[in-house]
């Protein structure tokens, strides 16, 4: 999404019903999603255990945390492979949510043509209206999808991980797979 010729970086959390739970729009397309998350109120809330047993799924660009599960770079066991498959299928919800959101509001697929501040307000307003459409079960005629980005070689890389996150992820795999 662009505003005034500058690419915005979006960071979005959605639930399984495609409702947008949090959206952050920042200027500068080179800002890494993990950095946006690291500076977010949501991260602080997860660290203070305000969300109880809920967890986030992130791609390999995020560091694994006790509340943020990422795919394993090199799964070795069948359990780990099943975990990665489940993670990929479940994480796909955000891609589909973004596709529905952009399908409803085509202005999000191109240069909005306003100041960055106005563009951010438009993005948040579109998120609110999208949520109302989800609640009211409004149908989409067609959906816009983007391909999931990776690091160019088909694999995701883990960065800035936390030991507790690795331990939690292994326990999660053992318990659920």
TrEMBL record:
InterPro entries: HARBI1-like, HARBI1_dom. Its cofactor is a divalent metal cation. Its main location: nucleus. It comes from the Eukaryota. Residues 12-131 form the DDE Tnp4 domain. Keywords: Hydrolase, Metal-binding, Nuclease, Nucleus. It is found in: Nucleus. Belongs to the HARBI1 family. This is DDE Tnp4 domain-containing protein. It comes from Periplaneta americana.
């Amino acid at each position: 999404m662009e505003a005034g010729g500058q690419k915005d970086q979006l960071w979005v959390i959605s639930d399984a019903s495609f409702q947008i739970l949090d959206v952050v729009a920042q200027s500068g397309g080179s800002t890494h999603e993990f950095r946006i998350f690291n500076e977010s109120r949501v991260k602080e809330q997860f660290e203070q255990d305000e969300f109880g047993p809920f967890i986030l799924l992130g791609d390999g660009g995020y560091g694994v945390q006790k509340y943020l599960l990422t795919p394993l770079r090199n799964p070795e066991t069948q359990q780990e492979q099943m975990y990665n498959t489940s993670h990929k299928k479940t994480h796909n919800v955000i891609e589909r949510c973004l596709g529905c959101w952009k399908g409803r509001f085509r202005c999000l697929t191109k240069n909005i043509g306003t100041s960055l501040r106005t563009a951010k307000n438009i993005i948040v307003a579109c998120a609110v209206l999208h949520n109302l459409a989800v609640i009211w079960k409004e149908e989409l005629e067609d959906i816009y999808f983007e391909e999931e980005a990776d690091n160019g070689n088909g694999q995701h890389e883990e960065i800035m991980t936390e030991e507790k996150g690795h331990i939690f992820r292994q326990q999660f795999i053992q318990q659920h797979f």
